[in-house]
What we know:
4 domains, alpha/beta, 586 residues, NAD, Malic enzyme, Rossmann fold, Malic_NAD-bd, NAD binding, metal-binding, 44% helix, seven-stranded mixed β-sheet, globular
Amino acid sequence: MANTLQTVRKSILTHSQSQSVRVALRGAAILNQPRFNKGTAFTAKEREIFGLRGRLPSRVNSLDEQCERAYAQLKTRDTPIRMNTFLHSMKDQNWVLYYSLVAKHLKELLPIIYTPTQGEAIAEYSHLFRRSEGIYLTFNAADKMEEDFLEQTRGRDIDLIVCSDAEAILGIGDQGVGVRAICTAKSALYSLIGGMDPARCLPISLDVGTDNQKLLEDPLYVGWQHKRVRGQEYDEFVDKFVQLVRKHYPHSLLHFEDFGVTNAYKILSRYKESHAVFNDDIQGTGAVTLACTMAAIGVTRTKLPDQRIVVFGAGSAGMGITKQLRDAMVATDGISEQEANSKFYLIDRYGLITERVEHTHGVRDDVKAYVRPDSEWTGVAHDANAEISLLEVIKKIKPTVLIGCSTRPGAFTKEAIEAMAEGCERPIIFPLSNPDRLVEVTPADANEWTKGKALLATGSPFPPAKMPNGKDYIIAECNNALIYPGLGFGAILSKSRHLSESMIVAGARRLAALSPALEDPDNALLPDLGHAPAVNFEVAVAVAEQAIEEGSAGVDWTKEEVRERAKAKTWVPVYPDLVYDEAGMK
Length: 586
């Protein structure tokens, strides 16, 4: 499988040759533009044409030489956050060098530019702030939103917009305008491993205030220091933004990130039929978990509807996973939605979500279809008003799949994991909470407590677990980065009117087909993150093919043309040949 993915990547790189780009900048102006800056890689001819001969040392470096020097500089940084800020500074100066360096050391540096290090960068955003990137749309300037939007996008072709209101950043909560750091990271990953031109990507902060008291009292906070706006005013602000995107960039993908669970579902539901929109916390997490589950049941030689699935944590991630698995059962196995719903057992802070819990505490609309009848649980708890615990659920229903997205470290106890192993031959256990300090159970413990029987995946990177036979069991990282850039690229490539559930399932199915465990059942359930660019290319092809097949694509070519069209569209970090465009100068 690794050889197949390497062949795919080589094919993309071979197809993506350096192209000529016309530039109307000279001297300091071109050096200060990260899209065009080459630093010491400017050729002698380019230095003469662009007035750079006296601004650069005489030696012309290759991109590989620049990467070698930059990597050595990076390794002098002694903490992940210092490495993070170094790389972001490089990105502000030279896009090609930044993306090329990270691509060369992808598995090592992905945790630095993304989770878990980016969480610290978000929390310290105002104190680390150096320069802006993208657009900040603030509630107290809503009347100027279109003017501000157009001022920053004039003359640009935009394929992708990544936006957030920062209410619910995974693991760290409300961080106000600091969410810009996750929007830029998500956008960067679309380019780094999704093949999208960074010049056509745009991160946007929707600053509607914050309820984080620490930020409200911080004199260095750079956002709007006001309590978070809610209700009708909030809805109107978001709608105004979405309508701007629809008006000026109707074929773009609008990626929603880290919205609070109530708003996340409401916004996704409101706009998913009128524009290509995507919520990574709901759909991305759901899609990669679906792919991981498909790979696991390929090992157990069962089907999705055969599973009894416990989801521990009913927030946006947990419900996104539940809905994605449910929809896949309906789409691929032809069972009814009601029957598919019956396969799930959701547990939140009040225990198993039953009719009693719904009556006593209330549940969100997206949870109602999964409420378990009280009659199923008569006699399980000694006290009729007591919560029904995870262990009690496991002992009664003998689940085949246990998924954790609760951010409650250690919630999957030894007794619970041992009960899982007693109930089925190869228990599928996915403790997905991240960062790693919040994981429900460590893979090493889950592997030991099941005597090596468990099929495991986590949301953060973990070292291999030792099997009883002494073999290392590679822990699959159920990371959205393995699928969301490909889902987005596929939708953009096909100019789809929306990102449908069937397109997402098609992408997940293609990812599952690349599972190393299908060749060796004791291997990882998902490909290594080092292969993420090739994996996402395959996902994008599957998504675009599905869009054409179902008639939602806005292109006039066939499924058979998709792969070559995708290669032609894929951006790779190589220096273009720059041509001075004197006519473009004012």
